[in-house]
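Quick note —
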Amino acid sequence: MSKRRALIIDDESGIRASLGLILEDEGYEVRRAADGDEGLSTARVERFDLVLCDVRMPRRSGLEILPELIRAQPDATVLMMSAYGQVEQALEAVRKGAYDYLAKPFQAEELLLAIGKAEERERLRRENRQLRRELGHGSVDGALVAASPAMREIYELVERAAEFKTTVLVTGESGVGKEVVARAVHGRSDRADQPFVALNCGAIAESLIESELFGHVRGAFTGADSEARGMFREADGGTLFLDEIGELPLSTQVKLLRVLQEEEVRPVGASKSHPVDVRIVAATARDLEAMVEAGTFRADLFYRLNVFRLHVPPLRERPEDVPALADQLLAALSRRMGKQIEPLDRAAVAALVAYAWPGNVRELENTLERALILASQSRITSELFPFVARPEPSSAPTAPAAGADADPAEDLSIKRRGRALEERLIRLALARTAGNRTRAALLLEISARALQYKLKEYGIEPLNPLPPGSDS
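Predicted structure written out below.
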């Protein structure tokens, strides 16, 4: 196995020497450069796993050479260093592609911790690349699960929309996977090898949103100690995903509309604009039409965004997707958490399908992660799901539940008797509604699609809901 290689770019010889010793003790082969030009020259002809680069250097600063450095070393982890420790520089370095930012003076432990995190990230990236190859499309995030008719339609529309630069508006409840759809649009377009930049409009303070979107020049406002390119310029050539677009302030909506119309951005405090080629995918869980009526969202911006709409239905309306989603999420979680787990058994899948999922795919992921943590062996059973009812502990025997027609002494298995009771309730609901599945689903308080899944599971014919000899 070849040695890991590191490049240190710093104009202070003492820093180069001390960092070199630390890295050599960690098994790195180290090269040193006294300024940005020398560092770039070295990076263009040799391969490195790690690059440590100072921010402030004579002639060309670290921030200035960073894009060229990343192009020369696309697989290396780049850590920036500065004695000045300003937040704006840290953000700018990360926006430009640096993995992290270390403020001088820092301890050897801080450096090694940052390197360790970077190595873990690279390991996960390698696993993700392998998983992408296995899945056969785009990224893991962009792999749409389309088992249900509704999601198969979404998949077909994504394929059509991806061919064009048309603005896409993705709507749906929180947690349904709107960003997954946005990434799928990007991943299937001719921009797939260009940046995909995501911004949650509801997570940025109103006073900072314009700077985040359009960038700013140095001195544009208090604390703007360096230039910031902004999300539009970072996404140039690629896709900008504007999540929670309904949270955008009215004043920023006007400027966003201008950018979409003119395809150029003017950073805060700047006197000139920059052309940008960006494909916009916006998403919202809010009713933008109602917001337009209420005057809280501009009608002209809405029409500009609502060119090609993709509505992602809630998970409770597409239970057919639950098994495949659970498999996909469980595989990703087990990789991330380093825990081997067997495929879900039939009872666990049935429990997931029957649940209404008010928190949608995000809740499904959280439920599986919790179950993975609680699982004492390599199996996840339905008892580990928080929404599955558990019997209350009792010191005295209790009477059998209403509708249970077997003697508890014969079979004490909660799982088997629970399934038997579930099947009987379904049959009774169908009997009371003369086989009407929609009304039966309402009585059972599950979705019609979930009922259809259970009819197949139990082999129930709706026109013959009760077996001969059963009461109603």
